[in-house]
Design brief:
Mean pLDDT of chain A: 96
CATH architecture of chain A: 2-Layer Sandwich
Catalytic activity (chains A, B, C, D, E, F): tRNA(n+1) + phosphate = tRNA(n) + a ribonucleoside 5'-diphosphate
Pfam families (chains A, B, C, D, E, F): RNase_PH, RNase_PH_C
GO molecular function (chains A, B, C, D, E, F): 3'-5'-RNA exonuclease activity; tRNA binding; tRNA nucleotidyltransferase activity
Number of strands of chain A: 9
Distance between the termini of chain A: 48 Å
Helix content of chain A: 25-40%
Shape of chain A: globular
Protein name (chains A, B, C, D, E, F): Ribonuclease PH
Largest sheet of chain A: 5 strands, mixed
Radius of gyration of chain A: 18 Å
EC number (chains A, B, C, D, E, F): 2.7.7.56
Strand order of the largest sheet of chain A: 1-2-3-5-4
Strand content of chain A: 25-35%
CATH superfamily of chain A: GHMP Kinase, N-terminal domain
Oligomer: homohexamer
Chain lengths: ~250, ~250, ~250, ~250, ~250, ~250
């Protein structure tokens, strides 16, 4: 017998996905992404400067920062600003988001400017990093649209879409888009980041208990592939709408 | 001629106030407060422990932490968690919020538990600290209602409401509830915190340019007093509604 | 019956005030200020550079730092340098001192240089921040006199004097210039900073227990006003003396 | 034409592997592992205490810390102890090493004690994290042998071996065990951790430039699988030797 | 021709020494020590607890902390509390002071309590660490006298006096008790700490330019020996006076 | 009866000394130095830049950093990078190493470049700082040889050799080159740094229990002098060998 998901969700079903553009008014791009109860505010900020390793290169930079509000979770966690440092987990996630987005950006076309994606989790229920990547790409797209409109870039530096989802094996059943209770219970957990064209950007699989087999990995990759196709459709549908008022 | 406010707002008018309860689902109280474009997420977290100075006292503790998302503002600010420390401004504000709330709480009636109010600014347009106090009190009230419902406290530790507003003199005109451009332009800036019964909890007045007179101070205090009465009404109206689903 | 003060001090009396100029020899201004047993060493240091936000502006900067020796107090406190960070209280106080002094300085007349006021508490008995402001202004004055004498500034950037005092209500009696035991016992505590001309620079009132009324606030402001007039006289008397040898 | 490797190494060949046991004398396990010019000192330290989340659980803990000597690399890097924090990369690696080892340890059989694997890179030439995992497992094995010999554990908590290797695609050719120049040139980079029984523990694949296809991933996983089998043989061969004098 | 000292001081002469007891009122011992223009406030704080490595040992602990006010020096230095860490020089000095005092204390006779000597430099003109040791011992003596008077210790834990002085070779001339300009000009610099009985506690000699010979070292040690005898006399003379009012 | 040393070592005998050049391949100089079981990896890194206080001076800089691997010692110590700061002991040692090496370097002959000596203790058994100085000088020599060979410096900036040893009194017997158990047991402990020509660079003597006499000091200095002569011979012998392959 397989694992029973919340509200009878199928093993290969995503949670309801929402991509609410212009959620805040100051940022060049601002998207509230929801994967079920997981909600992440992703803002894109354009700054006319680059980090030292890019100065004079003619190329720009795209980077990300990640944070979790202290009570985004079931029990309150420490505020990282008060503790005085970011956890290893936080740094790992923000490095992943940054790499994932840079993979679809032509930094030369961006020119010597930086776009920073701030991904702040308002409410957590599993999959915060995959929701963050998926939402941040939409925020990045809105920021790029602004750069094109103002003539600051001549052609879009975005080569493709990028989105992400988690997959895992719970009680022997491969599941798509794990929520928190599934994540806590799973034997194997994999985060997959793919482009709109279906190429892999990142694959991070971890055995939580026993090691996993090649066959299990193949099933998880197939689930992720199908899920990401639907996420990319959701990104495109969101961008097809007119930008709402802030 | 006096200063022209956005959308023809009167000098003694508040911006539109919203208090959206149960904005997130995990916290014992969770309120999104809006003062115009300023939006602060206030969560109340109940924990069954107290800081060292209260251990064994039979009394509880109420404290606050404050943060600003990096792109809550017109230009992106540093993430305090990444910089590794909270600014003096952040610490000053979170100490103010904590003191203001404790002034209306009977810590003995709360028992040996801590309620932490996390006030995180999603969008800033002036008055983030006063919005935070006003919203945090509603979140605190919802958390206390939960403690009463579960029988963990026998009577409400809340002695009164507390709310706050900023006032200032811009081009010689005393104004209520300053938005960002007014705050940046003002000569004198005052944050006032008052109880539902009309007592003063905190008065923090600062001359930005020239010193201010006693007469100016009196006019500002009167403006604040009237504004806070309306904020307390808004708090009560919000609490009179049934708690929405998360 | 009202509260009995140490040595029969009247409710509206200051403690003995001393302003010992040139207490140390290296600084451009150096004043040991005493409010009773509270003793704060205030030095003014002139540096020919400005912080980034003033570069190229033609204006100077005045800033303050505050510290408390570990055994300035009844029981030893942590050394902030050893703990690796300044407390919220320390930051709040040094920001207050800096703002208060800048309010009476014409930064354009100062030119592109910085004057830093270091206020270090050698012995604490209540009112360290108000003593610091009062003494720091005298140190600042001595530093400015040096700049005028050497021709580095053409006219004094000091527009007025500034001094500060605390007031509070203890057992129902409004008291001027609280010493430590009074501060610990008071219901309402207010720090007031005023110019020589009698304008308000900062008013920071805090209800420690119950909220305070408008009438109480008025009585406290009147007490502070009278006290600050006497402090400004003491500043002027100290400056009227020849500068002692170091 | 495919990429030419140093000293004519075949695309599917490991660099020379050495596992020098008891490299230092104080640690319960101490292994200098070499993958070609990459050299990592791995020590296992047994302590009779556990972190808070394991106290009273009857279970032990296995954790890892990673560091790189400042001049392990071609150009000198900052010393993390002097900078005052570990980089995101360092934290990511030490979390990976810890998870990988815990996957083959029965924490209940270990009992309430902690084994810490310190992996310090003396010389870096690509693959430091995979060498560290491979060497740390041997150090862990020696520490466990000591616990068995002294009767502190009744049966070995080690369920299997674990080893790791990097694979990547350089100029279209999939290569095993990348050295530094290959790592810098590669399009896709994957670190794979597997058990002695051939199960996957971690798979971390990253597209450096273009995204990678499922077919490329399959070829990389096959290369890694074969390489890890040989590494596990090398671990077993090293453990079959008598423990040298320190 | 030899080096000309300020005010014609002889090569083997100390600067004027002052030991002003009860300089502040809260500490169990409080001494303002002056070696010429160098002035250090040394307070001794008694606390009824010991650090972890002494718990349950029946022994006490004596430790020291050292700080320099930012404008104790000719040009303003950073405030260590604001920078967030103590410099290597500060740590070196406070470790030296602590070791020097412990050398003359019977920790078992002290019982399980800690005496902390805070040495804060109000004005620096060379020799701050030697003045600190010399003054701190007097503050420690006053604290011990209080413990004896209150019966908390049965016999004095002080086995002897301890004092310190710097010596150095400037332009070929060995000099006693270097002031700042001499210290900056010297070839060899030595800090010597000795007991009242004439035993060595610490000898720290450093060649600033060329290495120094055994003969030079012998001359410096002889100078230091004679100087410390006079400092110990000054300590005894200060303690022979009745304790002044604070 | 005097103290019995390990393996019958004479009181005035060094432990076996090894200086293994080119221990690692990337650094301009790299020496593994052993004093018995104490092993320190010393690398010299040449960088074409100088710290701010040397910019534009035409002079170079030589500095050192010191670290101890967590399990270099009998029981595991904290990793300083993880704790977020270097201990006072670490800073004291690295400052000593830097000063000792600079004493024999002509910084003008070095030109505007920096040589950093990283001294990392792989295994500790007493005398890590003296081994570090002795080994670092050889690494520095190899780096300088490279600069001469490439024509970047015209003449050697090394004016002499420098080496160091510890001496101490254990149970009344003066001993040369203390190992850990001797160091822990000794009454007086002295680290001596001398040049090849026999001049003193640093003398740091510390009484651990009772103060020490001038006669004891003289015996310790004589022991150290003889020991350092032999260490300088060992340095010269090591440098007389051809540089091995890495």
């Amino acid at each position: 017998m397989s694992f029973e998901r919340t509200q009878g969700r199928a093993a290969d079903a995503l949670r309801p996905v929402q991509l609410q553009r212009r959620y805040t008014r100051h940022a060049e791009g601002s998207v509230l992404v929801s994967f079920g109860h997981t909600r992440v505010l992703c803002t894109a900020s354009v700054e006319e400067r680059v980090p030292p390793h890019k100065r004079g290169s003619g190329e720009g930079w795209v980077t990300a920062e990640y944070g979790m509000l202290p009570r985004a979770t079931h029990t309150r966690g420490d505020r990282e600003a008060a503790r005085g440092k970011q956890s290893g987990r936080t740094q790992e996630i923000q490095r992943l988001i940054g790499r994932s987005l840079r993979c679809v950006v032509d930094l030369a076309a961006l020119g010597e400017r930086t776009i920073t994606l701030d991904c702040d989790v308002l409410q957590a229920d599993g999959g915060t990093r995959t929701a963050a990547i998926t939402g941040a790409w939409v925020a990045l797209h809105d920021a790029v649209t602004g750069l094109l409109a103002s003539g600051r870039v001549a052609r879009s530096p975005l080569r493709d879409a990028v989105a992400a989802v988690s997959v895992g094996i719970v009680d022997g059943t491969p599941l798509l888009d794990l929520e928190y209770v599934e994540d806590a219970a799973c034997d194997t957990d994999m985060n997959v980041v793919m482009t709109g064209a279906g190429g892999f950007v990142e694959v991070q699989g971890t055995a939580e208990g026993a090691a996993f087999s090649r066959a299990e990995m193949d099933r998880l990759l197939a689930l992720a592939d199908a899920g990401i196709r639907r996420l990319v459709e959701a990104q495109r549908a969101a961008l097809a709408q007119p930008l709402p008022d802030a």
